[in-house]
């Protein structure tokens, strides 16, 4: 069982909770933490589901609702904001046919806002999965999205 | 023409960050070997003598912090060392640059500091979004284990020393040292009341040294070359070099390591290539969101902790965000207040309620055609109230950008 294998990589100490949640979420094809999974974490760490849920709920990187394979994090913190990030969500929504905090119908992309990603020298910037991109323009966004779609179609 | 002086970034671009052998060939871990043979008290004295000050933003003496941690609670079994790599201050990305390009330099610094305070275990708390940095860090630490760097029993711990990675998960506040401890223990990122400081009661109540990535990365060169050598760079009260990250309307945004005391003008015009085509300098936001605005009158001031503080400007973590004349101060201030409102954890009332109130006031200002003095007055008043009553540095920070924006740009335009 996948969940158990991931849990066993960490010793059952409460301090490992965040690392465990990261590993579980990364391993889930929809990039989220279902309740059944949190229950197993709670039992592994000998704590309550409420305790685990409280932690999951605090941190913005964790989600309890299904998301897409690629999480698109659009930075809207002060530097990206002043460099023109407010147009980025609209462009992405148009290319992807979905809104912010939503997932595309094919389950490939999930759109989110993010606070400063530490890539301010290429503002306005975003992360797609683990990759960083910027400075963003309508053209560069189209290229990034079509590139990933083409790669995914090939692997299908 | 000012040039970079690279001490911390000396290996950047020259070695493969994923090969410990490259780092060792470049003289890496020699400083650690020297430190491991030194008496911890002498080691701390050397670091105090160097005048190194914390590069995370507060600018407190690194050596003094080590002394406090090493002298606290002589009966405690555990003593921890933590590297704060939870870089989240808007405009700051120096720690990412260090970890991605030369992870061993700050890890060696951690080993040196671990010897100084005789730490039993080390942690690197790194923000979860830094994927590449995390991968390089994992590789670096496993290479250190393979090379036997932890096995020398240099801190007197029976179980040997080790460094573990803890990932954050998207919380600006967790970069605050006491909140970081809560998060590292696997809890929600709620701040603790200070004092006690981590040096006295830190991780699981034990003495703990928390330093920034860049601070640790300064230590190898200081130990190799001595405090006197380090003091030959920078200014009397702020010795050494500092990495500044420049963003905004300049030709070459990026990271630059310069001697302390360099002027903002040289940073912007010599190193970052000057203003972008068609732009002229209007303002800089120094130190990030929890930083201060300044107009062109500060271009010739020297970048160092004390002289900046005297002028009511923060140097912070080294973020320099450059604005041109087309940008509106009110718009950027609004963005900062939105950021704070999102990151406020909600534990204490002044910050929870106040950060929302400030945003509402700011929106009122934004919708008016001219700045309403009544509103700006209330903005300052509320932020001052928050500064006095909030539990942690987050709620105490709103006043910094607000007061400085109004001081240099009374019409907020």
What does this molecule look like?
- The complex is a heterodimer of chains A (156) and B (413).
- Chain A has 156 residues and is α+β, with helices and mostly antiparallel strands.
- Chain A is 45% helix and 12% strand.
- Chain A has helices at residues 2-8, 17-27, 35-44, 49-58, 78-82, 88-96, 138-155; strands at 70-75, 109-114, 126-128, 131-133.
- In chain A, helix 3 (35-44) packs across helix 4 and helix 6 runs parallel beside helix 7 (138-155).
- The mean pLDDT of chain A is 96.
- Chain B has 413 residues and is of the alpha/beta class.
- Chain B has three domains: 20-231, NADH-ubiquinone oxidoreductase 51kDa subunit (Rossmann fold, 3-Layer(aba) Sandwich); 244-324, Ubiquitin-like (UB roll) (Roll); 329-408, NADH-ubiquinone oxidoreductase 51kDa subunit, iron-sulphur binding domain (de novo design (two linked rop proteins)).
- In chain B, helix 5 crosses helix 7 (131-146) and helix 14 runs antiparallel to helix 15 (373-389).
- The A-B interface holds A 13-19, 21-22, 54-55, 58-62, 73, 76-79, 81-83, 114-123, 127, 130 and B 87-93, 95-96, 127-132, 165-172, 183-189, 245-248, 253-255, 285, 288-289, 319, 321, 323, 327, 331-332, 335-336, 339, 342-343, 345.
In short:
The complex is a heterodimer of chains A (156) and B (413). Chain A has 7 helices and 4 strands, in the order H-H-H-H-E-H-H-E-E-E-H.
Quote the beta fraction of chain A: 5-15%
CATH architecture of the largest domain in chain A: 3-Layer(aba) Sandwich
Distance between the termini of chain B: 32 Å
Shape of chain B: globular
Which tags fit this structure?
heterodimer; A: 156 residues; alpha+beta; Glutaredoxin; 2 domains; four-stranded mixed β-sheet; 7 helices; 4 strands; 45% helix; 12% strand; globular; B: 413 residues; alpha/beta; Rossmann fold; Ubiquitin-like (UB roll); de novo design (two linked rop proteins); 3 domains; five-stranded mixed β-sheet; four-stranded parallel β-sheet; 9 strands; 43% helix
């Amino acid at each position: 069982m996948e969940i158990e294998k991931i849990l066993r990589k960490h010793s059952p100490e409460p301090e490992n909770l965040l690392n465990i949640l990261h590993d579980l979420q990364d391993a889930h094809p929809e990039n989220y933490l279902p309740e059944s999974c949190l229950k197993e974490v709670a039992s592994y760490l000998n704590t309550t589901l409420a305790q685990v849920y409280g932690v999951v709920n605090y941190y913005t990187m964790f989600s309890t609702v299904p998301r897409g394979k690629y999480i698109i994090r659009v930075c809207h913190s002060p530097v990206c904001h002043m460099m023109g990030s407010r147009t980025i969500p609209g462009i992405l929504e148009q290319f992807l046919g979905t809104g912010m905090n939503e997932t595309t119908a094919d389950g490939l992309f999930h759109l989110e806002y993010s606070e400063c990603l530490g890539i301010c020298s290429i503002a306005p910037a975003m992360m797609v999965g683990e990759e960083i991109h910027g400075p963003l323009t309508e053209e560069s966004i189209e290229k990034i999205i079509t590139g990933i779609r083409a790669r995914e179609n090939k692997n299908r | 023409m000012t040039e970079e002086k690279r001490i911390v970034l000396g290996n950047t671009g020259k070695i493969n960050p994923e090969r410990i052998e490259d780092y060792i060939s470049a003289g890496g871990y020699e400083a650690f070997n020297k430190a491991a043979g030194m008496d911890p008290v002498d080691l701390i004295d050397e670091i105090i003598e160097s005048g190194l000050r914390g590069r995370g933003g507060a600018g407190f003496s690194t050596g003094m912090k080590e002394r406090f941690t090493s002298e606290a609670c002589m009966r405690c079994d555990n003593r921890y060392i933590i590297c704060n790599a939870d870089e989240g201050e808007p405009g700051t990305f120096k720690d990412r640059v260090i970890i991605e390009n030369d992870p061993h330099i700050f890890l060696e610094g951690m080993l040196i500091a671990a010897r100084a305070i005789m730490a039993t275990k080390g942690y690197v708390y790194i923000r979860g979004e830094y994927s590449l940095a995390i991968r390089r860090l994992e590789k670096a630490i496993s290479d250190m284990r393979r090379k036997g760097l932890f096995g020398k029993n240099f801190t007197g711990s029976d179980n040997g020393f080790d460094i573990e990675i803890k990932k954050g998960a998207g919380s600006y506040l967790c970069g605050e040292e006491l909140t970081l401890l809560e998060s590292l223990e696997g809890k929600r990122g709620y701040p603790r009341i200070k004092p006690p400081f981590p040096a006295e009661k830190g991780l699981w109540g034990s003495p703990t040294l928390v330093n920034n990535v860049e601070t640790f990365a300064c230590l190898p060169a200081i130990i190799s070359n001595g405090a006197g050598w380090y003091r030959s760079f920078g200014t009397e009260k702020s010795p050494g070099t500092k990495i500044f990250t420049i963003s905004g309307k300049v030709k070459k945004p990026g990271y630059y390591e310069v001697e302390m005391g360099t002027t903002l003008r040289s940073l912007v015009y010599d190193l970052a290539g000057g203003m972008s085509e068609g732009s002229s300098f209007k303002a800089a936001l120094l130190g990030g969101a929890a930083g201060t605005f300044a107009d062109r009158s500060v271009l010739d001031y020297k970048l160092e902790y004390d002289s900046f503080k005297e002028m009511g400007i923060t140097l912070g973590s080294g973020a320099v965000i450059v604005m041109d004349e087309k940008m509106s101060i009110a718009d950027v201030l609004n963005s900062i207040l939105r950021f704070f409102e999102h990151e406020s954890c909600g534990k204490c009332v002044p910050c929870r309620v106040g950060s929302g109130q400030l945003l509402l006031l700011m929106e009122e200002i934004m919708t008016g055609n001219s700045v309403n003095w009544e509103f700006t007055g209330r903005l300052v008043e509320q932020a001052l109230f928050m500064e006095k009553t909030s539990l942690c540095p987050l709620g105490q920070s709103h006043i910094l950008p607000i007061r400085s924006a109004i001081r240099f740009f009374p019409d907020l335009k």
